[in-house]
Amino acid sequence: MNEKETAIPSLLFSYEQFKEFLLLQVDGTLITQHAKTVMQEMLVSAKDPKVVIEEKGLKPVDASQVEVWVKEFFDNNANVFADLKS
Question: Which of 12, 16, 54, 61 measures 20 to 30 Å from 42, CA to CA?
Fold first, then answer.
């Protein structure tokens, strides 16, 4: 808002969209690192935060999925694991 010198009454998104934006942060759907990106998009497009998250691929990754990816990486790159271990 400061960068664009936008006053609160002239915001494109609604109170309900802002509330949803905050609730998505609270429930972990919108992580802090992506909140600025989502808000910037909402400021210029008035899109719902869930739409922005979906369009930009900003859904958080499940920790169990990360574990699978790490295991796959080390299974396929045993030399890297050996180097790290030593």
Answer: 61
